[in-house]
Amino acid sequence: MAFPATSRKDLVQASRRNELIVETGRQIQKDFGEFGLEIHFTGSAQLFYEELFEQMKDHVAYLISDKLDRFMHFLYRIDINENDIKLYESQMPNKEYDHVLTELIIHRELKKVITRDYFRQQANKDHEQGELEG
Predict the structure, then answer these.
(1) Are 92 and 103 in contact (CB under 8 A)?
(2) What is the pLDDT of residue 121?
(3) Helix (H, G, I), strand (E, B) or coil at 46
(4) Radius of gyration (C-alpha) of the chain in whole angstroms
(5) What dihedral angle (degrees, nearest 10) is formed by the CA atoms of 85, 12, 96, 106?
(6) Taxonomically, which superkingdom (predicted)?
(7) Deepest in the core among 21, 57, 79, 111, taking most CB within 10 A?
(8) Reduced to 3 states, what is the DSSP secondary structure of residue 36?
(9) Consecutive 10-residue runs of the chain (134 residues): their mean pLDDT?
(10) Model's pTM, two decimal places?
(11) Looking at residue 17, what is its pLDDT?
(12) What is the DSSP secondary-structure string of 7-29?
């Protein structure tokens, strides 16, 4: 079984799939919401980045400056580690830290959605194969 591609380039390309974009927006709302951080998303795949990025970046900047322990817990919760941050910092050397982290969070959330979708499709294929054999 091959896993879905999850490099930064692959994630950017995959973000074009509308249903995954909308699901990612909802995942971002859910994860930020669990930390009392409100994110507004209309559900429009075309406006996804414009709608979410600045809201997320503002929350990230606030947490970094005022609630670092809470932010570290948030990163842990969505499965971002120090190596991920260093990689994105090296790939985006001219961007502010909160911009880099926001981009990383979006890509991590998208990766989560893509992986979940991949395994859902595999389960459906296995189920369909079982019905054909049965």
Answers:
(1) yes
(2) 75
(3) coil
(4) 16
(5) -70
(6) Bacteria
(7) 21
(8) coil
(9) 66 67 93 94 89 95 91 93 94 94 95 87 71 65
(10) 0.79
(11) 72
(12) SHHHHHHHTT-HHHHHHHHHHHH
Give the three-state DSSP class for 33: helix
Q: What type of residue sits at position 44?
A: S
- CA neighbor of 105 nearest in space, from 63, 45, 66, 46: 63
HEC profile of 59-119: HHHHHHHHCHHHHHHHHHHCCCCHHHHHHHHHHCCCCCHHHHHHHHHHHHHHHHHHHHHHH
Q: Could you identify the residue written with the tokens 């969070």?
A: 105
CA distances in angstroms from 117 to 33, 44, 103, listed in the order given: 22, 19, 21
Q: Are 36 and 131 in contact (CB under 8 A)?
A: no
